[in-house]
């Protein structure tokens, strides 16, 4: 186990008061870090006790030419890491190394969102993992655009109660929230690095999507603050990469409705009524709720039609009377019913045994604490020199690009490289990108919904690879050069 660092609460507050956060943000970060330190001190009292060459070409093809080998050509591991021995709280992880020079690749921790979505079931099996579950719910196929082409990736099921992660103390589930999630995730990392010591000192990044707009910056804040307080950086954190993030509750509410209006789903009259009665702040009352009601979750399908908020232009999964499911239309590379296949696959006893998961894991997940805005935390992380990239699929209404733009504006950063298209190696516009002082980068992914690596796997891989290299993707197509 990594060495514990007893830190006084007064020193902690002195450090926090030195960073440019609002009072509410400082109180939140102080509470989060204090909870982590108290846990570390408790663990210390119970226990008396403990890279490869960089690639030179930033645009080298991460995959070798030719056919993929027929067998799995990379190492993969899964299991549990206990983060609280007293309560029996353990987090499940699935770790995949890169097939290509894994020793020279960075380490990436992926966090899913919800709160309550499985990183294994959603992201590993439906988005950026090395496999996709086939419609039979029994077999897998390779995802040629998996992110472990360019990095070694940990998919963490967090917090306890999500996926296969669990606690032996049932009351833990009633205490789930942002602070505990950040503390448990950091504790997981320390223990995981003891289990995989070859990754100590390796360049490390945290990535995620949706509510991971909270998880990722909060975990990064713990890591950076502990480094500032102790002078040590066991994870060697270099940056964070967050897609379609929930960054501000009020801005997301406004951005979602504005997105529907901008894309012709909402009438001018409905939008005008919303704007008249809603300020999108804590003072909004019943008139605002009534104005928004045609597009709340209960009325959305009746008002907008049978479309998906995760991608308003994508096909949906149709349930046939005989129990089978099929896509309403064809979108290359995307199957809206894949969630059904994943559920069948991961509930198979043979699969659960093979991945070392505890069988018959049930969970419930109330959520007890979350800040309304992550902008102060992001601002602080940028000021510390951390690489921070945020990206948005431009067809998502759950955490839409309109909402993210409001939060980016609230960062109040000077533009250093203005908005422009970025290109993939296939000479297509992958999206648009802009960079700000401190290196903060905001990008869109063209033609994608909420789950960017699922809707646009090739484009997402190019953007992710660019982030890891710390360079913006190409500004012009190769055929124009």
TrEMBL record:
Signal peptide: 1-24
Keywords carried by this UniProt record: Carboxypeptidase, Disulfide bond, Glycoprotein, Hydrolase, Protease, Signal
EC number(s) given by UniProt: 3.4.16.-
Domain of life of the organism encoding this protein: Eukaryota
GO BP field: proteolysis
GO cellular component, as recorded: vacuole
Keyword Signal appears in the UniProt entry: yes
Annotated region described as Disordered, given as residue ranges: 48-72
Matching SUPFAM superfamilies: alpha/beta-Hydrolases
Gene Ontology terms for molecular function: serine-type carboxypeptidase activity
Protein name: Carboxypeptidase
Organism: Miscanthus lutarioriparius
Organism classification: Eukaryota, Viridiplantae, Streptophyta, Embryophyta, Tracheophyta
């Amino acid at each position: 186990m990594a060495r514990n660092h007893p830190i006084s609460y007064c020193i902690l507050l002195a450090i926090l008061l030195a960073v440019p956060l609002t009072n509410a943000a400082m109180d939140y970060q102080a509470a989060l870090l204090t909870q982590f330190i108290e846990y570390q001190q408790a663990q210390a009292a119970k226990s008396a006790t403990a890279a490869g060459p960089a690639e030179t070409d930033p645009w080298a093809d991460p995959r070798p030419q030719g056919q993929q080998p027929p067998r799995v050509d990379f190492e993969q591991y899964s299991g549990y890491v206990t983060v609280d021995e007293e309560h029996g709280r353990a987090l499940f992880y699935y770790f995949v190394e890169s097939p290509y020079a894994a020793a020279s690749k960075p380490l990436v921790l992926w966090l899913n969102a919800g709160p309550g979505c499985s990183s294994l079931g959603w992201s590993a099996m439906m988005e950026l993992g090395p496999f996709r579950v086939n419609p039979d719910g029994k077999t897998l196929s390779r995802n040629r655009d998996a992110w472990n082409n360019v990095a070694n990736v940990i998919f963490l099921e967090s917090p306890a109660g999500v996926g296969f992660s669990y606690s032996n103390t049932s009351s833990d589930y009633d205490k789930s929230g942002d602070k505990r999630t950040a503390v448990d995730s950091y504790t997981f990392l320390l223990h995981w690095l003891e289990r995989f010591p070859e990754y100590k000192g390796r360049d490390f990044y945290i990535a995620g999507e949706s509510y991971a707009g909270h998880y990722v910056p909060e975990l990064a804040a713990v890591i950076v603050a502990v480094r500032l307080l102790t002078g040590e950086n066991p994870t060697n954190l270099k940056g964070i990469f967050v897609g379609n993030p929930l960054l501000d509750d009020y801005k997301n509410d406004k951005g979602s409705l504005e997105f529907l209006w901008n894309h012709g789903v909402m009438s001018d009259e409905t939008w005008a009524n919303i704007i008249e009665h809603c300020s999108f702040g804590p003072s909004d009352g019943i008139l605002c709720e009534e104005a928004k009601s045609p597009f709340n979750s209960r009325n959305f399908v009746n008002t907008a039609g049978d479309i998906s908020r995760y991608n308003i232009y994508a096909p949906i999964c149709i349930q046939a009377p005989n129990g089978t499911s099929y896509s309403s239309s064809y979108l290359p590379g995307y199957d809206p019913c894949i969630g059904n296949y994943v559920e069948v696959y991961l509930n198979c006893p043979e699969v659960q045994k093979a991945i070392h998961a505890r069988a018959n894991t049930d969970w419930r997940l109330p959520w007890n604490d979350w800040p309304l805005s992550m902008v102060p935390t992001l601002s602080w992380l940028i000021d510390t020199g951390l690489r921070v990239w945020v990206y948005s699929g431009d067809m998502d209404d759950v955490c839409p690009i309109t909402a993210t733009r409001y939060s980016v504006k609230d960062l109040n950063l000077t533009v250093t490289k203005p908005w422009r298209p970025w290109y993939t190696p296939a000479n297509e516009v992958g999206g648009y990108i802009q960079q700000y002082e401190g290196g903060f980068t905001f990008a869109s992914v063209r033609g994608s919904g909420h789950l960017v690596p699922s809707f646009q796997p090739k484009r997402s891989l190019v953007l992710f690879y660019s982030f890891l290299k710390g360079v913006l993707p190409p500004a012009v197509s190769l055929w124009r050069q």
